[in-house]
Amino acid sequence: LIKPHLVRGAGKEKLRAGIVGCGGRGTEAVVDMLTGNENVELVAMADLFEDHLESSLTQLRDPKHIGRHAGITVERDGKPKQMTAQDLVASIQPRIQVRPDAHFTGFDAYQKLVKSDVDIVMLTTPPGYRPIHFEAAVAAGKHVFAEKPIATDAVGARRFIAAGRAA
């Protein structure tokens, strides 16, 4: 039995998300996640390359980048709300809480991220890496958002499906 008051995100405590893969699609996936739900914050980032991670973080903190999504309609308090650029910036920027010790780079960056204190792991790497990243996130007991395709070959797809069944 899960007691809702003991689950992060069930009350006022925000869900903590981390992203593996900080390229263009990953950066946009973070914006989509933070726009779609006010109860999530980004707390960790992982990428093979440090410059990709830093570039993504710079874009996420840039009001002009976030403001490009103005006009989107989201649900707030059970009602549709059209978000202005100012609404988006005010909503998203405070929830980007990635401290320097939660910047993970290198080939083992995904392992460090899934071992960190995140609830949600977003997988936006090239699809050839997704099966191993998904397996690690499932083994760590994390919720996972994965871009598609899930794999690039039948072996990878079977690994992904097996990890999904294990979850």
Report on the structure:
With 167 residues, this protein is α/β, with parallel strands linked by helices. Helix content is 40%, strand content 20%. The chain has helices spanning 24-36, 50-60, 63-67, 85-92, 109-115, 130-139, 154-166, and strands at 15-20, 40-47, 73-76, 79-82, 103-105, 120-123, 143-146. The chain has a 5-stranded parallel beta sheet with strand order 5-2-1-6-7, sandwiched between helices. Strands 3-4 form a two-stranded antiparallel ribbon. Helix 1 (24-36) links the parallel strand 1 and strand 2. Helix 1 (24-36) runs parallel beside helix 2 (50-60) and helix 6 runs parallel beside helix 7 (154-166). The longest helix is centred in the first third of the chain and has 13 residues, at 24-36. It starts with 14 loop residues before the first strand and ends with a helix.
